[in-house]
Amino acid sequence: MSKKIKRIGVLTSGGDSPGMNAAIRAVVRTGIYHGLEVYGIMRGYSGMVEDEIVTLENRSVANIIQRGGTILKTARCKEFMEYEGRKKAYENLTKRGIDGLVIIGGDGSFRGAQIFSNEFNIPCIGLPGTIDKDIAGTDFTIGFDTAVNTAVEAIDKVRDTAEAHDRLFIIEVMGRDAGYIALHSGIATGAENILIPERKTDINDIIASLAEKEKRKKLVNLIIVAEGDEFGANELSSLISEKLPTLEVRVCILGHIQRGGSPTCMDRLLASRMGYHAVESLIEGRHNVFVGILNNKMNYTPLNEAVKKKQHINDEWMNIVKILAT
Ligand code: ADP
């Protein structure tokens, strides 16, 4: 039997994502409901190392469910990569009696949590907070749905100007090494082609398809490129302009707007459910797992299996892109 948890800490670490606040709120309120004391650790692992830890009450998390960003702020912390830094972090937790942690972040943050927990025997539960959806063991991550919807809204706007001028637009979306934002937003906006790191890009195929479309006077096209694809948007634009000089090509890089904004209903729900289950897990004595969602059911994966995994992208998705973009 593991000992009863009394005080928990919550932190957001690594890249931020919309919905992190909703997750913090759920952790705080579920913890307090169960009679736990809840502490907020500022700026990811940095706050643990530098002793920036605050008490959180129910009221501290009022009016944040709809806000993007994270009230606890987030950071990347070099000191935590070293044993000495983690020891300092441990001392700062023990002087407050914090005996459980909830880490909201990506696979890097989970790796840190796993190492820390092995060294100092503090149970850790992860919540996947990343717009990239690049963590195996969960169908969705907190922030992905909001990021995709932001991308869709922006791409729709770009399409209006593309349509007015008969232009080909190459739009780069975020996602680090994963193509999910590109794939989902590309299908949802009727893109002509979607370039993702999980698939090899056949540049000749793209040129041939555009040439054929040009012949039949279909000049308005959108190509969505994931930032992690082997071809950057600018490189792709140069290659196309070189081979098809009569086409008017423009590049638009959506950038950090995809990280901000009010979380969608889906992200708020996901964050609330995951935050609740993170605290329940700690109380039940579940250690060193992250909470995911598979087929709409909670799923627990050991933190050390959360290595960034390129999830399998079904051929069906790529067929849909091809068939619908005629
Ligand atoms: P993400 O969680 O978004 O993947 P990072 O990979 O940048 O982001 O990781 C966030 C933080 O987690 C790092 O700055 C570091 O403090 C901690 N971390 C990551 N990997 C390790 C590791 N191998 N050992 C200790 N801490 C780590």
Q: Brief overview, please?
A:
The protein is α/β, with parallel strands linked by helices. It has helices spanning 20-33, 45-49, 83-94, 107-120, 144-165, 180-188, 203-215, 233-243, 265-284, 315-324; strands spanning 7-12, 37-41, 53-56, 100-105, 124-128, 168-173, 193-195, 221-226, 249-253, 289-294, 297-302. It contains 10 helices and 11 strands.
What does this structure look like?
There is one protein chain. This protein has helices at 20-33, 45-49, 83-94, 107-120, 144-165, 180-188, 203-215, 233-243, 265-284, 315-324; strands spanning 7-12, 37-41, 53-56, 100-105, 124-128, 168-173, 193-195, 221-226, 249-253, 289-294, 297-302. By secondary structure, it is α/β, with parallel strands linked by helices. The protein folds into two domains: 7-143 and 263-306, 3-Layer(aba) Sandwich (Rossmann fold), CATH 3.40.50; 144-259, 3-Layer(aba) Sandwich (Rossmann fold). The strands form two sheets. Strands 3-2-1-4-5-10-11 form a seven-stranded mixed beta sheet, with helices on both faces. A four-stranded parallel beta sheet has the order 7-8-6-9, sandwiched between helices. Helix 4 links the parallel strand 4 (100-105) and strand 5. Helix 1 (20-33) runs parallel beside helix 9 (265-284) and helix 5 packs across helix 6. The termini are far apart. Bound molecules: adenosine-5'-diphosphate. Adenosine-5'-diphosphate binds next to helix 4.
